[in-house]
Amino acid sequence: MTEPAGESGQTEPTAQSLPLKLIVGLGNPGQQYTGTRHNVGFEVIAELAERWQCGRPQQKCQAEIREAVRQDRRILLVTPLTFMNQSGQSVQQISRFFRIAPEEIVVVCDDMNLPNGQLRWRASGSGGGQKGLADILLRLGTDKVPRLRIGIGRPPGQMDATAWVLGRFRSEERAAVEIAVRRAVDSIEYCLDAGLLAVMSRFNQSSS
User: Which of 51, 105, 148, 165 could join 22 via S-S bond, C-beta 3.0 to 4.6 A?
Assistant: First the structure.
């Protein structure tokens, strides 16, 4: 089907013809995991969807997908419906279906190695102990996948790491996390405007 021509006589671009970007927030599906430390990536996607006034999500490729258009770019906001450790299944399917290159994917996930609420952008690297991110890198066959890590802090004492990430933020932590989620969304918008090097320089700082 021929796309409509503008006043200049040139074809007007449609949303489907715009370059694609994929933003994936990691977490575990199900009400029982809502608000847990491992699901902070889901919270970022929810905040993005609200700020950008996205419509209801569609289910496709084992994920919930919302769509937005920003800065002449079509952006898919994704929350996988697989569990955290199999996040790569969904991301691999979506990247193949929509033909999205790994460098056009941003993964948003929690990180126990960062203080609670601190942000860290990276253009590439290992999973760093985050099993959802590690599964994505494995299935895509590259470590050159941009990612935004959000600190959730280390478990206290001898507490099991799994129990920590599947637990909910304590009341004294929650305010810092809510600020971090909003800053994460700010940083994603800035990254779309200015690029990875600029966002790393500006946002890879203490959350204080």
Answer: 105
